[in-house]
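In the previous chapter we treated chains in isolation. Here, by contrast, the input contains two separate entities that must be folded as one system, with a combined length of 227 residues.
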Amino acid sequence: QQQVKQSPQSLIVQKGGISIINCAYENTAFDYFPWYQQFPGKGPALLIAIRPDVSEKKEGRFTISFNKSAKQFSLHIMDSQPGDSATYFCAAINAGKSTFGDGTTLTVKP
Amino acid sequence: GAVVSQHPSRVICKSGTSVKIECRSLDFQATTMFWYRQFPKQSLMLMATSNEGSKATYEQGVEKDKFLINHASLTLSTLTVTSAHPEDSSFYICSARDSGRTSYEQYFGPGTRLTVT
């Protein structure tokens, strides 16, 4: 049973637009929610993370919105740039162990 | 800060041989490291949790005798793929958690591409 569902599978956005990636989880024991960016042939890099007692966290162009009652969280990339083209993974952590979403391939067209 | 290295970055080996992959935390200590496997265009699959000074905890379906993990120091964990077969070809990624922090953040290595011929 997949515990973290991520959508969409792929996303194409024009340069300067907003990229939105969504994740939903089922296990209410999850207590930390990071987002990772991965370029081809590289390991994932931590982008931004949030705890469930916070509804929103912003770092530069990246914002996480968290809805605890709906068990959903999303990543917003403002002013998307071609350099943001990568695969993005959400994750949910319980007792230190991470469960990853299936990933979203983002393409930002110039 | 929070840099994790992996060596080698790429390795090609013949079927039946063993391959060792190293994962090092360069600027922090890590009592816990994780080993993942990733197939093309797929998510990360946790193989095992490596704890310094104790036996690794393997996920269901992962053969512990085939994927040997040793976490002998606070900065080094190794994954040895024994008697490798072509189906073991994959991208192997390690991550480490900073023992000096209370957060759950993991820092990932750059990955190792294993090809078994």
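The interface with chain B takes residues 31-32, 34, 36, 41-46, 49, 89, 93, 96-98, 100-103, 105 of chain A (CB under 8 Å). Chain A has a mean pLDDT of 94. Compare these points with the single-chain example from earlier in the chapter.
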